[in-house]
Amino acid sequence: MSMRMSEICLTENNNNEERYKVAPASINVEKGALADYDPFRERKVDHPTSDMDTLTHLLKASLGTGILAMPMAFSYSGLVTGIFATIATALVCTHCAYVLVKCAHTLYYRSRRTTMSFSEVAEVAFQNGPAWAKPWAQFMKHFINYGLFITYFGTCSVYTVIIAENFQQLIEHYFGWKGDPRIFISMLLIPLILLSWVPNLKYLAPFSSVANVFMGVGLLITFYYCTTDMPPISERKLHTSLIQIAPFFGIVIFAMEAIGVVMPLENSMRTPQHFIGICGVLNKGMGGVTMVYILLGFVGYVKYGNDAAGSITLNLPIEEIPAQIVKILIALAVYCTFGLQFYVCLEIGWDFIKDKFTKRPLMVNYMMRTVLVTAAVLLAVAVPTIGPFVGLLGAFCFSILGLLVPVFIEMVTYWEQGFGKFNWIIWKNVIVCIFGVLALIFGSKDAIADIVKLYSNNGFENGLYETTAGAIDGFLETTAGPLA
């Protein structure tokens, strides 16, 4: 490039030696250096999504089943602390997604590319970064790809268990038939394969819209139960100690985190510039999500106190029809969300094999979709108690991929441009890393506790059905939200 990426000033010290003073360069400087290239104008997408389509997908990705664990999260934090801690957590998660997309837009200009996956953003950033970062480029790409694929594939498998369990509870309540969970899981194979055949995010948008409606109605009914005969707020704690609040961050970070779908959504947009910005799609979506999380956490904790379950639906009276409707709606919402989560696996898998099948790519693509869904269902059939294991994997991967990796990408991307006055970007990223480490420690701790509880002697004595239900409860407590 003919123009330097950073503004470099030469100064002289007392020994008449020249040294560089690196100052942050404006993004307009970088765009001016490549005035002949606009990655957004050059982008060609067969079926681009509108801003509203993208917002719908983002809401579904972030407003998942993890929100049902918010009352329990507030039981760890208290009412007042929970409100401010939820806002702080939302700011961190949103900022990390913002940083990832911002770096991608910067790297589009540098590399003259129009789209990148999460792993490709990391690869290009490290390839074009300082000398010490270049050898890590391939490692970062493979680490992100494998982490996302395994975590989201496991999530898809758990989703089949969640759907099956909700319908099984209703059938048992009405007909008294306590069947094998594997039968209900197997019955989902064909519907899930048909959903996986939806070709792209543009045509998945209606499913996300329907899922948002199902989840919204289910939450409204849940709000009705939570606000009926509420005890006075004075009976609930307002604050807790730092030690007691730690699990709160583990729950809320994973409930809000949706880093795996950020770049696929941005890559499919007709106007990707609108994804970030003060009034961008990202901020609009996460702002609304944060308010709903706070509201349910607040009223749910006031209603049930320390008895709030890992999924607030477990506190609802199963014998009442509105509570049964909630279970049906959430099961249907999870089914409609399956396609969005599956798309992450599909994109990674297809990028890995597409160069080997150039003759009939469409047929191979749909065969791969069918094989992956079948494998996810078979995994759920073989191990219907897989929830806590995926929870542990999600706690490990999403704390690193969702919080730590984006700030490392930012550091490498803008290494030559500097880190602002007083190196404020470095200090900001230190705070984000602390959040990431807390999420890793407490998310993993809770998931391991669920695994130990699951395979204790009591778990085996209660039988497969109760064990599966407990596994799903544990999964919702730790990682269902980010994956939902």
From TrEMBL:
GO molecular function: L-amino acid transmembrane transporter activity
Entry protein name: Amino acid transporter transmembrane domain-containing protein
PANTHER family: AMINO ACID TRANSPORTER, PROTON-COUPLED AMINO ACID TRANSPORTER-LIKE PROTEIN PATHETIC
Source species, domain of life: Eukaryota
Compartment annotation: Membrane
Membrane topology: Multi-pass membrane protein
InterPro entries associated with the record: AA_transpt_TM
Domain Amino acid transporter transmembrane as annotated: residue spans: 48-446
Annotated source species: Chironomus riparius
One GO location term (cellular component): vacuolar membrane
Keywords: Membrane, Transmembrane, Transmembrane helix
The keyword Transmembrane helix is assigned to this record: yes
Transmembrane segments: 82-101, 143-163, 183-200, 207-225, 245-265, 286-304, 324-346, 366-386, 424-443
